[in-house]
Amino acid sequence: MKRLIFLSFLFTSAASFAQTGDLKLVSYPGRIEESIGKRALARQILSDSRLDTVETRALRILNGFNAGNGYGEIWIRDLNTFITGSLQVRDKKDVKEALLLFFKLQGADGNIPDGAIAKKDAALAYKYASTDLAPGWVSHKNTVETDQETSLIQAIRKYIDATGDKSILDEKVGGQTVLLRMEAAMNFLLKERWAADYGLIKGATTIDWGDVQPEKGWGVALNDKTKWTIDIYDNAMFIIALNDFMTLLPKGDMHKKWKQTAGDIKKNVRKHLWDAEKKKYIPHIYLDGSPFPADFNENEILYTGGTACAILAGLHSKSEIRAINDQFLNAAEKEKFATIGMTVYPPYPVEVFPNMAAYHYQNAGDWTWFGGRMIHALHLNGFNNEAYAEMSPMLDRVIQHGFHEWYEVRSGKPSGSGDFRGEAGVLYDAIQLLRKWAAKNQ
């Protein structure tokens, strides 16, 4: 029988092989050499006990809404990625209330905050906001980001898909329906975060999907050092949100407007951000100058998270996805404990990004939170051999260490928050997708 050979981090020094059914796992970097057929792959997925273990452990920690044990807040960008699993262990009403909370905290201009936290627990240096619509709660916004609005819209779509409860769209918050508040959130992006010369949305300079500016200081807030830029992550998230929003709308003027907006942004992403020759995205288009020295070639850096979101947004052909995935694997093979969730490669040198050391956190740390989204993207585009193979080291890592925010690629050390629900959520979703496919193809 043909073998599927892939990268598997067993976190041991042994060079020996570990056998799992029909697939051979190796403890050194590798990739698919020969794809097995659909039926063989389906049987292997359905018999892989690691999926049961990770699913069970994921559901065990998805009973809360804060991002992990290192965070007090409910973050909308995190909740968006574990809401489906949460609905398996929490009452639908609780999940609905968590979503409605962000509409209660919505700004008058339509913006959506990042984090919501009980007022009594708000102790960090954020600029907190409060409203009579959510007594006892305060919120804050990492203003360098442009993904809070799009994350909430995506979460609403997931909630409705999982529950069938479209009544949430008619819920009134401060006299306005959720549906109209969703549109107000997108209009905020078109008004306050719009780069008219490019027909794309903008944000501050960060590393891919990250929320920290290069200069030393409180890097999550816009300031006089901010350099406005356009990147793939923000725009891919907007396209996904627009696609989700349109599925919730009846045909009519509103649907037509947002369909046109989505189409225009897709064209402009391909025109301005995608490097067709190198088959990768340029990191940034700077609108008021770069924060980096002229001799620093930022374009050599591979952005994985935003690129995975671009595939999920429907921006790529199968041949492009294969080329992108090869680049992710090539990058992962350069570091002993990396998976395709390594945020960027190579990392930014500390000399040009003083606020974050190389190989730390969002600067080439390994985040299953985004690597897991690439598993979704591969599966949804028919790359099931690759999806299963490239998820394997993520499963092994969780089984050994539990769910963590990120991992160091040179030591394999788990870092950041423990019980990180974003990692649990994307792996839970990936397992469901692959199992559903396998059940139909065994």
Q: How many helical stretches?
A: 13
Mean pLDDT: 93
Q: Can you give the helix content as a percent range?
A: 40-55%
- What is the CATH architecture annotation? Alpha/alpha barrel
Structural class: alpha+beta
Question: What profile does the largest beta sheet have?
Answer: 3 strands, mixed
Using only CA atoms, what is the Rg? Answer: 21 Å
- Terminal CA distance reads 16 Å
Total separate domains: 1
| Count of DSSP strands | 19
Q: Tell me, what is the CATH class?
A: Mainly Alpha
Across the major sheet, the strand order is 1-3-2
Report the uncertain regions.
1-30
CATH fold type: Glycosyltransferase
Beta content: 5-15%
The dominant shape is: globular
InterPro entries: 6-hairpin_glycosidase_sf (IPR008928), 6hp_glycosidase-like_sf (IPR012341)
Protein name: Amylo-alpha-1,6-glucosidase
Keywords: Signal
Description:
It comes from Chitinophaga caseinilytica. Residues 1-18 form the signal peptide. Keywords: Signal. This is Amylo-alpha-1,6-glucosidase. With 442 residues, this protein is an alpha+beta fold. The chain has a single domain, classed as Alpha/alpha barrel (Glycosyltransferase). Helices cover 43% and strands 12% of the residues. It is built from 13 helices and 19 strands. The protein has helices at residues 38-47, 49-61, 76-89, 92-104, 148-163, 178-192, 232-247, 253-272, 305-312, 318-332, 368-380, 384-401, 421-441, and strands spanning 5-7, 18-20, 23-26, 74-75, 115-118, 137-140, 172-173, 176-177, 194-195, 200-201, 203-204, 228-230, 274-275, 280-281, 285-286, 302-303, 344-345, 404-407, 414-418. The strands form 8 sheets. It has a 3-stranded mixed β-sheet, covered by helices on one side. Strands 4-5-6 form a 3-stranded antiparallel β-sheet. Strands 11-12-15 form a 3-stranded antiparallel β-sheet. A hairpin with a 4-residue loop joins strand 13 (274-275) and strand 14. Helix 1 (38-47) packs across helix 13 and helix 11 runs parallel beside helix 13 (421-441). The protein is globular and about 55 Å long. The model is unreliable at 1-30 (pLDDT under 50).
